[in-house]
Design a protein that fits this description.
With about 350 residues, the chain is an alpha/beta fold. Helix content is about 50%, strand content about 10%. It has a single domain, classed as Alpha-Beta Barrel (TIM Barrel). The protein has 15 helices and nine strands. The strands form two sheets. A seven-stranded parallel sheet has the order 1-4-5-6-7-8-9. Strands 2-3 form a two-stranded antiparallel sheet. The structure holds coproporphyrinogen III.
């Protein structure tokens, strides 16, 4: 069944023309219908934990654009929330958490995670029932390093310096925290797959701020730990890895972690991307600001990507999430360009 879905076929190594497309943050503030549903929730986390509303916003971009994948509407920070780290989303600013100290790491207790995350699993189950049969349902989690950066700084920062410092000064606690998050994440992904997700993506949004040895210890090893644990219970699980900003360290990441497909940010040169694609499927990598800039920038960018990556296994996507400034009509134009209708 799953094999009839375009994205699952690409994840198995097939080349499709046109390539399937979905967009990171496809459910989000650029859509008026999202803002309307969002206003009914009691804050962003309440939106994530209310299946009626989460299902609705997940389906909105599918109805509007007919994307080939639907991504569960939630956030990577529900995991630290399940650990009791007091996660809040401040209007117009972003996430805030209670910054964790090294001496608190040993006390982190994942015992109540599945109880806490039960509404997310319910959202996945309901989505599976409501989505068109040809639409791939993607689950996701944050990579341990990216989650840890927010747990340590208590917020996003320009270069996640607090977490990098923590990694040098408290290495044992950092590794312990990454292992704990990896084990929780593996269970979390298995539950999403059990609830009806076809495949999953691991978002490592902050992997680009580390030197090479730290990248190996804090990004590659924990993601491999997730992949190994997921496959121990689901040998056929399809996993997309997205080590945003990894640059030259993209080389070898697929093999070292065991992921199936490599998510590329927009700074990855297309000739290098084509090399990476010789080893397996890639996803990406249009600069999200091209969608904000409008149709000429969109068309140029799509044509270059299709020329360089269209002859191999490709899932078309942006190189990071769509921003609130994008015009919904231009998102439609992007889909038309990729599908050869514009
Ligand atoms: O449509 C989808 O892609 C699915 C939903 C999704 C969200 N966040 C919804 C969201 C996914 C997959 C994420 C992942 C996520 N969350 C990441 C990894 C990907 C990335 O963007 O790098 C990270 C780092 C987070 C943490 C996070 N959540 C931040 C830093 C912020 C604030 C920045 C912002 O864009 O507001 C969020 C909030 C958030 N997550 C929003 C959405 C739609 C906006 C919140 C709102 O509606 O007010």
């Amino acid at each position: 069944m799953a094999d009839e879905k375009a994205i699952m076929r690409v994840l198995s190594g097939e080349t499709l023309d046109p390539p399937p497309i979905w967009v990171m943050r496809q459910a989000g503030r650029y859509l008026p219908e999202y803002r309307e549903t969002r206003a009914q929730a009691n804050g962003f986390l309440d939106l994530c934990y209310t299946p009626d509303l989460a299902v609705e916003v997940t389906l909105q971009p599918i109805r509007r654009y007919g994307f080939d994948a639907s991504i569960l509407f939630s956030d990577i920070l529900v995991l630290p929330d399940a650990l009791g780290r007091n996660v809040r989303f401040v209007e117009g600013e972003g996430p805030r958490l209670d910054p964790i100290r090294a001496d608190e790491v040993a006390g982190l207790d994942p015992q109540r995670m599945h109880e806490h995350l039960a509404p997310v699993y319910e959202t996945v189950t309901r989505l599976r029932a409501e989505l068109p049969a040809s639409t791939t349902l993607l689950g996701f989690c944050g990579a341990p390093w990216t989650i840890a950066t927010y747990m340590i700084a208590g917020q996003g920062t320009p270069d996640q310096a607090p977490a990098r410092l923590f990694g040098y000064k408290h290495r044992a606690e950092m590794l312990q925290m990454l292992d704990l998050i990896a084990d929780m994440s593996a269970e979390y992904l298995v539950r999403q797959l059990d609830s009806g997700a076809d495949a999953v993506q691991v978002f490592d949004s902050w992997s680009g701020v580390l030197d090479d040895v730290s990248f190996d210890a804090f990004c590659v090893k924990p993601v491999k730990r997730i992949v190994d644990k997921v496959r121990a219970s689901k040998p056929d699980a399809r996993i997309i890895g997205f080590p945003k900003g990894a640059g030259a360290l993209y080389r070898g990441y697929r093999e070292a972690t065991g992921i199936d497909a490599l998510g590329l940010d927009w700074t990855v040169p297309l000739d290098f991307a084509a090399e990476l694609q010789r080893e397996g499927p890639v996803q990406g990598n249009l600069d999200p600001l091209r969608v904000v800039a409008g149709r000429i920038a969109i068309k140029d960018g799509v044509e270059r990507i299709l020329e360089k990556l269209g002859n191999g296994p490709l899932i078309f996507n942006l190189g990071h999430g769509i921003t609130p400034q994008a015009n919904p009509e231009d998102m439609g134009y992007l889909v038309d360009c990729v599908r050869g209708n514009a």
